[in-house]
Amino acid sequence: MxxxxxIANRGEIAIRVARACRELGICxxxxxxxxxxxxxxxxxxxETYLVGDPPPQSSYLNIQAIIxxxxxxxxxxxxxxxxxxxENPKFARACEDSGIIFIGPGSKALALVGDKVASRNTxxxxxxxxxxxxxxxxxxxxxxxxxxxxxxxxxIVKASMGGGGKGMRIVRTEKELQNSIEAxxxxxxxxxxxxxxxxxxxxxxxxxxxxxxxxxxxxxxxxLFERECSIQRRHQKIVEETPSTALDVDLRQRMGEAAKRVxxxxxxxxxxxxxxxxxxxxxxxxxxxxxxxxxxHPITEMVTGIxxxxxxxxxxxxxxxxxxxDAVEQxxxxxxxxxxxxxxxxxxxxxxxxxxxxxxxxxxxxRIDSGIFQGxxxxxxxxxxxxxxxxxxxxxxxxxxxxxxxxxxxxILGIKTNLGYLRRIMLTPKFTAGDYHTHxxxxxxxxxxxxDDSIHAxxxxxxxxxMTGRNGERILRQEDEILRSxxxxxxxxxxxxxxxxxx
Amino acid sequence: MKYNFLCLNKAYAADVQKGExxxxxxxxxxxxxxxxxxMHENAISFRIKNKNYRMPFARDKKKIYxxxxxxxxxxxxxxxARYGSEGPGQRKDNVIAxxxxxxxxxxxxxxxxxxxxxxxxxIVEAMKMQNELRSPVDGIVKSVNFKEGEQVDAFVSIVExxxxx
Lengths: 503, 165
Fold this sequence. Notes:
The structure holds two protein chains of two kinds.
Chain A: E1 4-7, H1 11-23, E2 27-33, E3 47-52, H2 63-72, E4 77-79, H3 89-97, E5 101-102, H4 107-114, H5 116-125, H6 141-151, E6 155-159, E7 169-171, H7 174-192, E8 197-201, E9 207-215, E10 221-233, E11 236-242, H8 249-265, E12 270-278, E13 284-290, H9 297-304, H10 308-316, E14 333-340, E15 342-343, E16 349-350, E17 353-354, E18 357-359, E19 366-370, E20 377-378, E21 385-393, H11 396-408, E22 411-413, H12 419-427, H13 429-432, H14 440-443, H15 445-448, H16 455-467, H17 472-483, H18 488-492
Parallel strand pairs in A: 1-2, 1-4, 2-3, 4-5
Antiparallel strand pairs in A: 6-7, 6-8, 9-10, 9-12, 10-11, 11-14, 12-13, 14-21, 15-16, 17-20, 18-22, 19-21
Chain B: E1 2-7, E2 10-18, E3 23-27, E4 30-40, E5 43-48, E6 51-59, E7 63-68, E8 71-78, E9 95-97, E10 102-106, E11 114-115, E12 120-126, E13 129-134, E14 139-144, E15 151-152, E16 157-163
Antiparallel strand pairs in B: 1-2, 1-8, 2-3, 3-4, 4-5, 5-6, 6-7, 7-8, 9-16, 10-12, 10-15, 11-14, 12-13, 14-16
């Protein structure tokens, strides 16, 4: 087993990996950019190193700097987390060349599944269906135009290195094609350092269903069932659940076996996720392999009882998976909600800033993978994910109720978050019925709108709060007074204590 | 005491007065009798009629943040005169500004460029997301206040357009 693992990431996932390391008796080594010197993940590390300036290219995407730190700290392995360098074959290769174990697939398998075109060819050979489209990522507008015409609009432009919707554009007419390709390339370049994009037929109203697979270096392959990830905004998942309400025993079994064939055909080891689109008549199409631990991995852990990050580390160390397919069970129902620093009432725009107040929920079946703390300034340089709330219960209805309740007791103030929005999703009839697809957010806009029923209560509260002071000093002094009294009204006494805000 | 708030892009005026044994808060034409008010550093509670409210809150110089029944309200304190030089309330069509702070990654126009409604005039990136700012008007670019690669604040003019008559 490894002695020391460098965790080449930040935020909640770095903490998740550090926990797994500690449980295995491995020393976790953390890295941070200068924007993250006070970040929570560093508290979970035994050693920490500054990797570079805030921009990702200088820090969490800086292959040479990370390899140098791994060598300097004598780490025998690197866990990349998700995002950043997690699926970058150059990084996996750089680890291999330096004699450091990359906790993930080998660089060859990573290059294969990361190349969406090559991976489509591979899966076709083992009889797994794919969506019609570009077979080779071509340069030049003409070839995009021809293939779009061949498969028919609408089509979708995607980043070859991509994931999470970055660099993706749906194109409904030829007129929009060129702009969409360029926009996709820019986003791909900025997010993945590679601007290659490709094009395929766009399937209307699909469900996004993925299967978690583990494969060890001895050729043992198991799948850990599905995750339903159809609740997406801007092609990025925000709520995931397992089991999916769309699968029956037979379809689940066929998709699980297909996922294992994809992983085996790619000679892929470690944890990987095979993503499928499921159309309205229950045909499934291979989408891509996510060659990393995924943001939504906890729901699989909750229903199977298998620790995925621990498995990743053990598989990387050459340990055999200690159980067979028929020993894996789905028990109960799990839902994950991703908490983002963003403003759902303003087009989901990112909302970095200082967390002035934080109160995280707990209770039976409630898990929080969080990377934040009260007083922390959320930096603007990285993905806006703050934490993940996971609810497990014996059945779906109870899990939804548990999630809804936990969301309403999750208080993050000072920055905009999607907490209220996520709770509205839990209460939406189409969601509670389990009847949804990837356009859920757009199709249920009316149900998801923030109601202003309670606005008067909020304004009443704000007026009373404002009354206690109009600038920082006064607020502090008066709060002290208020803290000494349970009835500030009497304590404040004279109205002249605070002057009108207009003055 | 009168307070003006901006919440969810709407303006609200509230007036707080002391009543007999309650506080009376008037918001527009609605009157609320507030009883049993208690306030601590990050929590306020009170009763209106038979309903009890308990809300965690936080505040900074300009805003009050409240969690209420699973929803999150950001109430921006405003006093008509001071508010408006920045902020979404006073945005003009011919001034292109970003509603989030970020890095100006692309600025495809310069002074004198002709723009039509829907034309991209700037792209701002924050937290790995790109936001395309499009011109809502027909016209000619009158001023350009930033360069590509510069950091821009929210609601600060990046490009101004002289509207075509």
